[in-house]
Amino acid sequence: MSRRDDRRRRIEEAFAEFQRAVSAALGSVAREHRALAVEHAKDMFEFTVRGMGVDKALQDVALAGVTRFLTVDEKRTRNPRQAPLSMPEFAERLAQIRHDWQQSYHEWTTSGPDQVTALVNSVAAGPASWPHESWLGQPGTHDGSEGVPELWRIGTGVVTSAPEHQPFPVAVPLLDQAHLHIASTPDSRQIADTLVESLLLRVLSHFQPGLVHVHVWDIGQLTGSLPGLYPLTRANLLTVHDPARLHELLDELSEHIRQIHTKVLVDGHLTVRSVSGEGRRTEPWRIAVLFGNRKALKEEHQQQLQRVARNGLACGVQLFIVDIPITVNSPVETVSLRGDGTAMCTMTGKDVRVTLDPPLPRTLVPRACAAIAEKREERRTRMAKFGDLLPERLWTENSAAGVIAPVGFDDGEQVCVQLGDTSPHALIGGPSGSGKTNFLYAMLGSLCARYSPDELELYLLDFKEGVSFAQFAPGRKDPSWLPHARLVGVNVNTDREFGVALLRFLADEMRRRADAAKQHEVTKLEHLRAEDPGGRWPRIVAVIDEFQYLFGERDQVTAAATQLLEDVARRGRSQGIHLVLSSQDVSGIEGFWGKSAIFEQFTVRIALPKARRVLAEPQNDAAVELPRWHAVINHESGVKPGNEICRIPDSTSKGTMDFLQAQLWQRERGRAPGLFDGSKIPLLDALPDFSDLQPGDSSPTVLLGQVIDVAGSAARVRFARTPGRNIAVVGSVVQDAAAVLAGAAASLGRQHEPHEASFTLASLVDEAMPSALHLAKRLRADGHDAEVIGINRIREVLDRTAAQLQQIGTGQADAPLAPHYLVLYGVDAAQTLLEQKDPATRASGVDSLRTVLKHGPENRTHVLGWWRGVQRLKASLPPGVYDDIGAWVAFDVQGKELLSLGPEQVMAWSPRPRRGLFFDRFEHSRPQVIIPFDTGEA
Fold it and tell me: Which of 91, 154, 327, 682 could make an SS bond with 706 (beta carbons 3.0 to 4.6 A apart)?
């Protein structure tokens, strides 16, 4: 051997020893030795760059290993005389490094093992490092709030080159820290199985059952891997995947990572661990164990596995990769197994021998897994209570970015409904008896407990004889109300117009907020609240139960509702307005034919047992076999990967939502919500519009009934001194007509001083006399002159009044007259009598009526009359001239009969009990549906 070859050999041996020393120092967990070893590596790196001029590739080689560095560098150097081995500076630098390392290595051999032991004990307490006798068979109790072990024990190590072989525990980082790669030999495959089993049992036994889910895939076996863990399958904690379907497992993990990024890692969070913070773990870990055959996977599987490994740790996805060659750009701890039961880790070198912990007792492993499964099933089947949905402190949340409502539990963990900019509206489906009302109570109670009325307003509407929301408004038995509720609609039945009114109100509010946002140069509610902190901009949640009835017919109501709903659904998200629509079956909504764009805005889908067409059918049939008291919560427009199945607690029984409402009402009563009860007739004296009427207006307002709108306002007619200011009521039912006439006359009487105006009440049909007498009594109590006459005097009154008006017209009398109101019940009953002509003047009573109708309003004389049919009304008017009746209310009259009296929209009118169609030709472009008042008549 030449002298040059001998020198090269000695230098190579020196560098090999140096590599082992640095690797041993790196293998010690003590931070100071790691830092020293890294510093040595940096020195070597700087030396090679400065003294040898190597390129980037050779720099990487130098850090990877001395032997490979020397070999590659020697081959790449064109001029042997310039090779690093021929440079004396190289040997000097090496000697200095060896001296520094020997000094630090001596310190490690004397104190390192004790330091490692102390470190493992401090960061790997409990099942993470303790002997199995102290934890195996006892389900874990930790929920992540007390921290997560950083290391998990696998065995005992010794430094073979140390004078005394002092043992120390060897542990590997897992879960949020690093993936685990195990490489075995044909003789050590069984050892790999026991190592994986031990680590999984340690993790499963540390945390509450349900916080860790395990997936197993073995390329060579269907069900042979880890048989001791199989009791976990009945609690869905272990899933064994088909060896031919690796892509399905990788797809499932990839989809889970995507959902974590879109739903959990928000507000700047980078990991699930940072979201949890010091609190309970919000998302369970998923450990995927992949057993290979020491051959590379298919290229597409390899790439997808690398993506899962690269992104999984931040999302709680942990890989145990056994005998699969893979290189990933992610933290990975590698354990290389030997046939004698020992191992070599990437953190240890040849100087450290790791003796793996013995396998767990075969008989105890299935029992321990069964205990974990039973505990988890116990948590799953535990009857969660309504109070568990509520926060410890009321009204502490801020709704600027959206609202979150826990509605149920899955494995003891809360499942929430979120409404915000990314998930603006919700669609709930479930047949009768599936628990829609219970779900709505759970959601509303959860929202109201978290957000104050300044943060959240509710508009609640229940179609089809529903009374689900009645308790949220004050009633006779319970005077309390839900402070967040601004409007409650119950027993809506056929009053589909009220649904349109609610949508129109939301559209107007949306535009008001958009204008305010424009003034502050922002586009969304969250930014508007930041720019205008003094303003009141709560989130609005509008819940419409059985909303399909709003679109039940092909008419103008459906057209208007569809247009408004599309507008609110599309633009309401940015202004903090959210819709929650509930239905037994959305398949019958005719109004949405060809309007799929509306449903695309409802990204939150809630399916109750046996619900149809709420989720993305037919791929997602999760609701078909759903048990009672459960729901599928899906924030991904109903696609299957977005399913969250949870149990909904009882929220309707005594002591649940009613108790919470009483608490909130005592805390802040505020203004009671508006109540629309379709089964009740509005009381005239309780109407704010009636109470606000005062004497003194020269053009008094006539109130005819309540308009079906959000404000519960009255239908109005102004009795100005202009032609046509008369009112006709058309219909055959005296109760409806008498209610309108009584409300109109009472509202007029309220606007006149005592004895200022006179009222003539003419009962021309016998069944109207009680109503006329009751109205006269009321008017007289207010100090007005009210005369009740029968059919025998109607001609006299009309002729006298007509004569007075004619005298004013010819200048024979002073104008105007004192206010005079003729309230005529059943005008058509006197038609024959009125048609008779006076022999002297050849004038009839009909002529007098027409004179009063034509000239009376200009002289403060107005007619409020009831005709029992449209043709009968026309008989009282000049042929083809209807302008003298400026306003009318029709009850049991078909729309086509009214076409001559009003616009084309009257054609869509179909009569229904206690509802009238009101039209003022001087004020309206289309008619309105009104409800006649209850004037207190027995």
Answer: 682
DSSP per-residue letters across 336-400: EE-TTSEEEETT--TTEEEEEPPPPPTTHHHHHHHHHHHHHHHHHHS---GGGGS-SSTT----T
| Contact call for residues 15 and 48 (beta carbons, < 8 A) | no
pLDDT band of residue 227 (cuts 50, 70, 90) is: confident
- 């990839």: which residue's tokens? 254
pLDDT digits (tens, 9 = 90+) for 559-568: 888 899 999 9
238-277 pLDDT, tens digit per residue, is 888 888 888 889 988 998 888 888 777 766 678 888 776 6
833 φ/ψ sector (left φ>0, alpha ψ -120 to 50, else beta): alpha
Contact, 544 vs 550, CB < 8 A?
yes
Whether residue 900 has pLDDT greater than 80: yes
The single residue listed with the structure tokens 């109407």 is 687
Weakest-pLDDT range from 58-62, 416-420, 549-553, 707-711: 58-62
Which residues are paired to 869 by β-bridges?
A: none
Flag whether 163 is marked binding. no
Nearest to 910 by CA among 555, 592, 489: 555
User: Is residue 435 marked as binding?
Assistant: yes
- The pTM (predicted TM-score) of the whole model is 0.67
Could you tell me the maximum CA-CA distance found in the chain, to the nearest angstrom? 157
What CA–CA distance (Å, rounded) separates 8 from 53?
A: 20
* Domains defined for the chain, CATH in brackets: 43-63+88-130 (no CATH), 172-380 (3.40.50.300), 403-668 (3.40.50.300), 698-931 (3.40.50.300)
- 432 has binding-site annotation: yes
Q: Do the annotations mark residue 140 as ligand-binding?
A: no
Q: Is 445 annotated as a binding residue?
A: no
Is 851 annotated as a binding-site member? no
CA–CA separation, 154 and 136 (whole Å): 15
What backbone torsions phi and psi does residue 746 show, to the nearest 5 degrees? -65, -40
Percent of the chain with pLDDT strictly greater than 90: 42
The better pLDDT of the pair 492, 503 is held by: 503
Consult the annotation and say whether 75 binds a ligand: no
User: Three-state SS for 226?
Assistant: coil
Both tokens of residue 286?
Answer: 């998923």
